[in-house]
Specification:
With about 325 residues, the chain is α+β, with helices and mostly antiparallel strands. It contains 11 helices and 13 strands.
């Protein structure tokens, strides 16, 4: 199983800080792990939520955050998944807490077999797409600033789910099999196939942390320091060189707009650390022209160390739109 990196602050504390702790009076809201959609549903708290709502449906909310802002979230009607929260899949933690480990991947909600009960079978449903915001995969929530993400969370969880008249159908991604062991192997293989993806995200998270530390948590061209607006931008792209992909010296801390321009080669950086833009930007839209003119010849700032010149040289020759190689391909 993937290592679970939980946020440092409890989701209940954050909801209170964000002024929306009332959402937890009728909904069961937990945090997911930072790098993937692992979470835990406690049996005692869930039972209390069921008692509070009586015959009314409610949401199981799974919120991913960085202790400051919402990254993304799921809102899942309890009626859609209650048949998956079964005694056979209960896990008892070291502190005596009883509940279920859950995993969401590819739009599938799965209760995961506990290690101490190898005879239990993981089960799943595919009906959670009623409300789904996926920041890393779908950009659905990424387009909104952090405050608007919070408003979307409030809007969703303040409403009662529509009544569910029938149990959800099995997921089509894993077809029912007459051989339970074969189906279980298929599920385990599917989980295993995600480990590389999860590991890559963990590595990218470490790279981001290293780059932000190198530039003191500020955009090296503008001084913007709001973390959710900063990107650890690779100088030599991730896919181009395995050796440099995790080196913080191969990164610039950039405001999101500058990151995209740098990534697409609309500007580069010379060996002195100054921004270089194309000689003729008149063919570009006015907004892009203004962004580029605003940083032209600006020197990289806030860095705690030198940027290797070979990284910058690679960007100038392989990425920059005015490089001889790029001109030849036009």
């Amino acid at each position: 199983m993937a290592k679970r990196n939980e946020p440092n602050i409890r989701i209940g504390t954050l909801l209170n800080n964000w002024g929306c702790n009332e959402l937890t009076t009728k909904n069961y809201i937990v945090a997911s792990s930072v790098e993937n959609w692992w979470s835990w549903i406690g049996k005692k708290m869930l039972s209390g939520c069921i008692a509070t709502n009586g015959n009314n449906d409610f949401y199981i909310g799974i919120v991913r955050h960085d202790n400051v802002t919402i990254d993304s979230f799921y809102a899942i009607p309890y009626s859609h998944v209650k048949h998956l929260l079964i005694p056979e899949l209960e896990k008892t933690k070291k502190d005596g807490a009883v509940g279920w480990n859950i995993l969401i991947e590819n739009g599938i909600f799965r209760t995961v077999r506990p290690k101490d009960n190898p005879n239990a079978k993981s089960v799943e449903t595919n009906t959670i797409s009623v409300v789904k915001f996926l920041y890393p995969q779908g950009d659905e929530l990424k387009q909104y600033p952090p405050g608007d993400r919070l408003e979307k969370l409030k809007d969703v969880f303040s409403k009662q789910p529509q009544e569910t008249t029938s149990a959800p159908s099995p997921s089509p991604s894993v077809s029912p099999s007459s051989d339970p062991e074969a189906q279980e192997r298929a599920i385990e293989e599917e989980i295993t196939s995600k480990r590389a993806e999860i590991e890559q995200r963990l590595q990218q998270s470490k790279f981001r942390k290293g780059v932000l530390e190198k530039f003191n948590g500020q955009c090296c061209l503008s001084g913007i320091y709001e973390q959710e607006l900063l990107v650890a931008s690779h100088i030599v792209p991730w896919a181009a060189d395995e050796k440099s992909r995790l080196d913080p010296n191969n990164g610039l801390c950039l405001f999101v707009s500058y990151d995209k321009l740098f990534d697409k080669g609309y500007f580069t950086v010379d060996d002195e650390g100054r921004v270089v833009i194309p000689d003729d930007v008149s063919r570009l839209s006015r907004g892009v022209q203004e962004l580029l003119y605003g940083i032209n010849r600006r020197k990289i700032a806030f860095s705690n160390g030198e940027i290797p010149r070979d990284y910058l040289a690679y960007h100038r020759t392989e990425i920059y739109v005015m490089s001889p190689k790029k001109k030849e391909n036009r």
